[in-house]
Amino acid sequence: MTKISDFIKPQLDSLKISLTSVQFEQLDNLAEAMLADPLYKSVSKIFEPEEMAVKHFLDSLIPLCYKLPIWQAKKVMDLGTGGGFPCLPLAIALPDSHFTAVDGRQKSVDFVARMAKAIGLKNVDTIHTRIEDLGREAEHREKYDLVVCRALSAIRVLVEYTLPLTRNGGCSFYYKGPKLDEELAEAANAFKVLEVATEGIEIFRLLPPEVPFERNFVAIHKIKGVSSKYPRKAGTPLAKPL
């Protein structure tokens, strides 16, 4: 079987993202462990190796092409981790960061924990909970240097999910698709309510042929605390976005 690294290494090289041979081996081992796990089909619908390499592994890693201070974060949370993306590839690429993978589905966090153990990742743990509940817990509220989200929700929902978990001086980072500008416009009120400063919002865009598909990113640098009213009770941010 063609290895995941065979598909993504040329692309990562062109983006000047450097990984060691050991890290590429870990990525290959992760892909093999995932496909061999009987529960993989319950956390992803992508099975063909090249598609898996591009849509899961490459997509998780491409924001590393931006040489940002956030990649030195010590405490990172992946909200709505699903099958472990971007958490697991990022944890391989950033061994000095500790990742907490969060999901509302027990099978997802169990799968991620099993995959981390299978390839010997020591910098990943998991939490099964509702995001809104986590954001109100003293142990987690405003404790993370970086909170990442991929394929979770619209920006106006994500800011209510992530900012209560992000420490002052930290960053919330969202993987977004072609509708970024539309989502940013819709999020104007959420930014106002949660006091997100315009100068704290950073936008990054990658387009073909640089990458196989359009991928946009939003970094929200948190410069002040969030009111204790947020996040609202479970289900409300999605049902009634700010």
Report on this model:
The protein has 242 residues and is an alpha/beta fold. Helix content is 38%, strand content 19%. The protein contains eleven helices and seven strands. It has helices at residues 4-14, 21-36, 40-43, 49-61, 87-93, 106-118, 131-134, 155-162, 180-186, 188-193, 236-239; strands at 75-79, 98-103, 124-128, 144-150, 166-176, 201-206, 215-221. A seven-stranded mixed β-sheet has the order 3-2-1-4-5-7-6, sandwiched between helices. Strand 4 (144-150), helix 8 (155-162) and strand 5 (166-176) form a beta-alpha-beta unit. Helix 1 (4-14) packs parallel to helix 4 and helix 2 (21-36) packs antiparallel against helix 5. It starts with a helix and ends with a helix. The model has no long low-confidence stretch (mean pLDDT 94).
Main sheet summary: 7 strands, mixed
Residues in helix, %: 25-40%
The order of strands across the largest sheet is 3-2-1-4-5-7-6
> Structural class of the helix and strand makeup?
alpha/beta
Residue windows where pLDDT falls under 50 for at least 5 positions:
none
Radius of gyration: 17 Å
* Average residue-wise pLDDT: 94
Oligomeric status: single chain
Q: What's the total helix number?
A: 11
Number of strands: 7
Q: Assess the beta-strand content as a share of residues.
A: 15-25%
Distance between the termini: 47 Å
